[in-house]
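Dear colleague,

Thank you for sharing your sequence with our group. We've completed the structure prediction you requested, and as agreed, I am returning the results in plain text so they can be pasted directly into your records. Please verify that the sequence below matches your submission; if there's any discrepancy, let me know and we will rerun it promptly.
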Amino acid sequence: MKVIARSYLAAAFMLTALGLGAALPAQSAERTTLSVAEPSVTQPDALALQAWPTVGQARLKILFWNVYDSVLSTPSGTWDDAGPYQLALTYLRDIPAQQLVDETEKAWRDQGRSHPDENQWLQSLLSLWPDVTEGDTLVLAVDAAGNNAFWLNNSALGSIDHPDFAAFFGGIWLDEDSPRPALRAKLVGQ
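Please find the predicted structure tokens below.
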């Protein structure tokens, strides 16, 4: 009887906490949900982080502030305008997840891009990415089929399960219409 009462009391406290805006405890990294609106943390082996040769690297500096160091890696060490590749951003300052998402949207606007699912992608990124702190490394891994996965400090975060997402997102840094052409040139080895 005491065990049932404790379980009931624990459930009541959890529901009360949720009603007051508390977050649920973190879930296991074994989550397997796949959708645009909900990120996945199960990646194919092709999206596991690899020790590939560096194609190029660059630092993003805005005015007097260093924002991140970026490194593009591929299996061949050259850029072929498609996956597989890994784009790693090592942050040199603390940045909230909301600001990362806002900057993603701004980059797409600067490129003149839009996609019918971009609002869902942005919401998924906001739930997928944590706030980053100085020294954190966020990696986008893309395979030859265009599948994607995000990693933070060598831990899988998840992916956006949409055939257009990887090219749309990676294009911020890697496409010829990148909003930061000098950074792109260094990354792709030009």
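Summary note from our side: The helical segments are 2-19, 97-110, 118-128, 165-174, 181-187.

Kind regards,
the structure core
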